Amino acid sequence: MKRLVVLTGAGVSAESGIKTFRDADGLWENYPVMEVASHTGFMRNPALVHKFYNERRHQLVKCEPNAAHYGLAELEKDFDVDIITQNVDNLHERAGSSRVLHLHGELMKIRSMRHEERVYTLTPDNLDTSVDTRDSYGDPVRPHIVFFEEAVPNITPASEIVRQADILVIIGTSLVVYPAAGLMYYARKGTPIYYIDPNPAQIPYDMDNVTVIAKPATVGVAELKELLTR
Q: Could you read off the pLDDT of 135-149 as tens digits, one per residue?
């Protein structure tokens, strides 16, 4: 069974009603991005950051996976599928994808600030945290999110997965947020690459193995499935 590796960005969840974290004016849900999504911002005002991610979780549980999420899950019938996502939502998992690697953390999880390996999953009826929240060890917690100014710990395993791809698919990303944007270059020479985005970024001139599908994720994934399984 061929190894199909899918890199997803904000565009795959946009049609589920989840807004991108980065606006043209530097705001995310009317908050300055660096105030709520950076290490410095969290250190300066942790109460604001907790409040912000509480709001994002309440938004997320009201959203449903869209046809793109479900279409990618269905590809597991014909391919050995890995999804590497820049998104912090859990819509891939809720749609049924069995192997999902999150580059930038997971919104529905929190972790100990003293022992970062202690990670806890929140439930829809228990979404809120604050500076006073403690885990069972008495440690303060923080969102399980990779803030700006922090390392991306999953970038190394992600690059290894891309190296093993027989087919690489990129969906809903501007290809400008590094280090994630550099992952496509780990694909073996000649690996077929499919790029789905309604406003695709410029592809390097020397990459003649890229098929661009300039459509929204839901439409593009349906077209991708036809191309791959016919």
A: 999 999 999 999 999
